[in-house]
Amino acid sequence: MGLIFAELGRASSSIFNNGVYAGMLIVIALTTLLPPFLMKYLHHNQPCQP
Question: Which of 15, 35, 19, 31 is nearest to 5 (CA)?
């Protein structure tokens, strides 16, 4: 969803320049890809509770 809004802001009304757009892409990619791995790493030793 974030990629759609970033592209709309860059393409349609030129709200973002290319530098801001690139930064937004990096942040969107990191916040999408890192959380599953971080949660697995942080919670790997905790026992399951019913």
Answer: 15
Question: Which distant-in-sequence residues (6+ apart) come within 8 Å of 38 by Cβ?
Answer: none
**Which DSSP category does 16 fall into?**
S
pTM of the model: 0.66
Taking Cα atoms as reference points, which of 47, 49, 2, 50 lies closest to residue 24? 2
**Listed residue (44, 19, 16, 48) closest to 6, CA to CA:** 16
1-50 pLDDT, tens digit each:
777 877 777 777 677 788 888 888 899 999 999 999 998 888 887 777 76
Q: In degrees, to the nearest 5, what angle opens at C-alpha 22 toward C-alphas 32 and 20?
A: 115
